[in-house]
Design brief:
Length: 94
């Protein structure tokens, strides 16, 4: 399983929990992750080569390059550009 430690700042790593899916889903789902933070964030991200489904349980992330917030439920295809993610410090997402 990939580690968040290679690409994320330390304060972001502390909020991540990564889970392996059950055996029946492993052909379709690489992993699940949960991220919680009470700190404001502004971190760069890079394309990871796979689609994502993200549920924001609190304030959605802001993407300055797109000048928009993600919706409470975000479905992302394969992103082919780096971007920043900003948070007001009220982050809880799956």
């Amino acid at each position: 399983m990939e580690s968040a430690s290679h690409v994320l700042p330390h304060m972001v790593q502390e909020g991540f929990q990564i889970y392996k899916p059950c055996k029946a889903l492993q052909s379709y789902v690489r992993y699940y992750w949960i991220f919680k933070s009470k700190q404001p964030l502004n971190v760069p991200t890079f394309p990871i080569g796979c689609p994502q489904i993200i549920f924001h349980k609190k304030t959605p992330l802001y993407i300055p390059e797109l000048k928009s917030y993600q919706s409470a439920l975000s479905v992302s295809g394969q992103v082919n550009y780096p971007a920043h993610l900003s948070s007001d410090g009220n982050t809880n997402m799956i």
